[in-house]
Amino acid sequence: MKRSASAIAVAAVLGAVGVTGALAQSSDQSPVRIGVLEDMTGPLSSIGGPGNVVAAQMAVEDFGGTVLGRKIEIVSGDDQNKPDVGLGIVRRWFDVENVSMVTGLGNSGVALAIQNLARERKRIDIVIGAAAQELSTKQCSPTGFQWNWDAHAVASTVVNGLMDATQAKSWYFLTVDYAFGHSVEREATAIIKDRDGKVAGSARHPLGTADFASFMLQAQASKADVVALANVSADLVNSVKASREFGIVAGGQKLAAFILQQAEVSGLGLDVAKGLVTTSAFFYGMSDETRAFGDRFASRFNGRLPGTNQAGVYSAVLHYLKAMQAAGTDSGETVAIAMRRMPVTDFVNKEAHIRADGRLLRDLFLVQVKSPEESKFQGDFYKVLAKVGPEKAFAKISDDCVIPKSAE
Question: 20, 130, 267, 366: least CB-packed within 10 angstroms?
């Protein structure tokens, strides 16, 4: 179900709407507002948070600062990892501030709630960090998109990669106890069992846990080949530190993280993080283009390099603005159609396409954290073990996703 139309073709397909939009833009001079909703100060803030706001601003500036003759503004809010808080912010954005698109959305529980609201209000949401599979299956939306990855993609990349390379058969999960962790563990378990592996056990922890000693003792006692971390950000950093303290890898077990971003490796240091296997959609050392983006970002963000979420926000905002320009209107339903029909091209994605369920079909990478000796420059954290094309990374479109034909 790939889409291959160019921006010109989209404009032709949406010609009637485009004329209406062009006429409307002369009288509507209100700003086009894009909202970035994230955990700004809590346990997920290091991999999203204020950095995602900077990335969105960079995309707006690179687009030219205006669309359809209207100034583009970025607004931001702190969801505190609470769906009700996020819903309160976004309701105000939609009803009072006329925000036309919401992005960021690193917490899966928050993202699911916002996608439902955006569907009701016919506004666009582009989920960057959240990986819950439901976002593009049973809770998919004509105006909803999932950009970086999803639970199946990160599970299949890590599980298949390790089982192919090491014949690891038994797995133990340490899982954060909310929608993201549940979804990743469920997808990974299905893949392991399909390959005649087994799950030796699992433990769940609350978001924002500081002490992982008891969890690591359980993982060690399981004697599983792989201890798999289905958590992120501060929880992931604390888990990896505890695994080193309790000698998980030194004792012969392998340690894998389904998602491990630049900020987390930086926080751990290469000496602690070295050898970790994970999934990535972007990293600083990928290419000259990614390094150029990273250097620009760092110059605006206290020297901190971007991670996959910042690259994703930039890509999503830029594609949204291109689609709005092509459609000639800010109507969420119409712009969403244009987004699906236009290829996604930026410093990471080359002619990537968006499926009917809102899933961006992109390349992912199985990577391993380098040792200090292997790292050649600041931010040189990963070596690529395998490139995983979208046809292997992502599950087929689900029968649970019902999108009207007119929205494709």
Answer: 20
CA distance 183 to 162: 19
pLDDT in tens, 368-403: 999 999 999 999 999 999 999 999 999 999 999 998
For the whole model, what pTM was predicted? 0.91
Which stretches within 67-206 are classed as H helix? 83-95, 108-121, 151-166, 179-194
Q: Are 282 and 290 in contact (CB under 8 A)?
A: yes
Q: In the CATH scheme, what is the homologous superfamily, with its name and number, of domain 7-149+287-362?
A: Response regulator (3.40.50.2300)
What count of other Cβ atoms lies within 10 Å of the Cβ of residue 287?
13
Q: DSSP of 165-190, one letter per residue?
A: HH---EEEEEEESSHHHHHHHHHHHH
- Position 28 scores a pLDDT of 73
pLDDT tens digits, one per residue of 196-222 = 999 999 999 999 999 999 999 999 999
Instruction: For residue 264, give the DSSP letter.
Output: H
